[in-house]
Design a protein that fits this description.
This protein has about 200 residues and is mainly alpha-helical. Helix content is about 65%, strand content about 0%. It contains eleven helices and no strands. Helix 1 packs across helix 2 (about 25-35) and helix 6 (about 75-95) runs antiparallel to helix 7 (about 100-110). The protein is elongated, with a radius of gyration of 25 Å. It starts with a helix and ends in an 11-residue tail after the last helix.
């Protein structure tokens, strides 16, 4: 939503109130930025642009791999750091200027060690959606934030990064198509033809 709003705003800025050029937002974006429709296969069959959805090996071996989710490196690291992160949260709650001793005591009594992750997600969500620092963020120390970010990086490494070879191998079709299309376009230009002569996929 935010990206679309900014694109529209940029287009309207370039229009300078010209109703013939920019009769409405959708037309102005198409006119100024030269956007074209993109026809794509259903996500389950689009091996180029949606390989995360279209690759069965990835879905079975990575995305829906319950053993890795429970016992993989990211899960083991989170299990090891969870008590420390919980203690950091309790200390931060107790030190809150509005007084949080009773809340901290309740957290300790309940043994709600997963509360740290919940607070972190609420902090990030409000920042992303409303573009403001959430009060939940005040309950996380700088050290806790660093460790939580590191946990997210480790999890992403295994799910989307180099943790499993299938993560990057399944994008080969896209890059093969990109390199091939670029080479063919360069050959057509060298031959004096239009680089847009090749029909879209």
């Amino acid at each position: 939503r935010d990206g679309g709003a900014s694109a529209t705003g940029s287009a309207n800025d370039d229009c300078h109130g010209d109703a013939d050029v920019c009769p409405n937002d959708s037309v102005s974006v198409r006119h100024v930025h030269g956007a074209v429709p993109v026809k794509s296969n259903p996500k389950e069959a689009d091996t180029r642009l949606r390989f995360h959805k279209a690759c069965p090996a990835y879905q079975i071996g990575v995305k829906k791999n319950e053993t890795h989710r429970r016992e993989g490196p990211a899960a083991l690291l989170e299990e090891r750091l969870r008590p420390e992160l919980f203690q950091l949260l309790v200390e931060q709650v107790r030190a809150h200027p509005r007084g949080g001793n009773h809340i901290a005591d309740a957290l300790v009594t309940a043994g709600a060690q997963e509360a740290t992750t919940l607070v972190w997600e609420l902090c990030a969500l409000e920042l992303a959606v409303h573009e403001r620092v959430s009060p939940y963020c005040e309950l996380l120390s700088a050290r806790a934030i660093e460790e939580l970010e590191f946990l997210e990086d480790v999890a992403t490494y295994w799910v989307k990064g180099y943790g499993f070879s299938i993560n990057y191998e399944m994008s080969c079709l896209l890059f093969e198509d990109l390199v091939g299309a670029t080479a063919r376009a360069a050959a057509r230009v060298a031959a004096g033809q239009s680089e847009l002569a090749e029909p879209p996929l």
